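One record is given unchanged without comment:
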Amino acid sequence: MKFEYQAKNQQGEPQVGIVEAMERDAALRILTANGLVVLSITEAKKEGASNFVYRLVNKVGTKDLMIFTRQFSTLLGASVPLGSALRTLAVQTKNPLLKETIGEIQREIDSGLSLSQAMEKYSSVFSEFYVNMVRSAEVTGRVDEVMEFLADYLEKQEAISSKVRNALIYPIFMVSFLFIVVMFMAVVVFPQIQDVFLELGSTIPLPTRIVIWFGQFLVKWWWAVIAGTVLLVGIFADYLRSKEGTVFKDELTLRIPLFSKLLKQMYVARFADSVGVLIKGGVAIVQALEITARTMGSAVYTEILRDAANDVRNGVLLSQALAKYPDYFPPLIGQMVAIGESTGQLEPLLKKVSAFYSREIDDLVGSLVELIQPILMLIIGAVVGALFASILMPVYSFVSTSLQ
């Protein structure tokens, strides 16, 4: 949900804008965390259809964001002022929506907002992870370093996504083609087979009758199937956007057999990256954990890290706090963190943890890609076999009856 707000910053200057959160209280917490005194906050009006279509057509992809982040990091590293860097990027960026967003951010900064506050208004472009990393960089004064880290992170994400997409092109094509064939057979072919065998007095086997019934149902109630599907998808999507739905979705995805290990490794690598960058910037460990909790992108890991931050605040070592969750943080993490705590080299060891799990993620993605294709082909083969069996069984039944 989006909320429009009016507030004052710590210097007493008025601030207006839009913040996105799951509920009004969460929006208030976000604004307060940014040092704003909220005067009023109301739910924003839904965007018009034309604006929605425009944003859908001109979507900012990971590659576009990665290029922007890399160039932004280079300009900031060359000591180019923030406003000048954004103006330069707005001129040379090709994506229309990103160009417009950069221009808006530059104007927001000129009006007194920080970079993270300005980016936070454009959640369709900058994720919560991205915004919170920028916010942490503003605390440490290392925006250029964090931008370089984000560029590397987005590059790795794009490489993984590209590898998966390329591997799934052929199976997706085959599944789509199979769906069309199944619909054609159920709606057109099987009803004709039914008429032929009824005329010949043959008994139609149960599997064939099921396929025929399915085809007749689609022909008669196709509009209800489409309407029901759209309604159910809408209700489910709306539920997943709620706080309860987000937690349910994140818990469920972490239990999917093929992808559970991959996702957990991705979150562990993200944890190590984020906490390492924050500690290097001089942020206290408790604050680093709290900031990282907001950047994880998983409600499950967010809750774990908030609990860990409370434990550390109460005097518990980070390694001991993480050891309470062996299903989400492997023992290796606790051991490496414990060594870092005892030697005072926590940040370098977290960097090694991130590098290790990044390599593990690459290997696991490769294995999953090789595994997904044969699994999909087996499913396709089973469906095609069932269709042919539904056709051949009546023929075999008819021939057997005729020979007796």
Notes: Strands lie at 2-8, 14-20, 37-43. The longest helix spans residues 346-403. The longest strand covers residues 2-8. The chain has 16 helices and three strands.
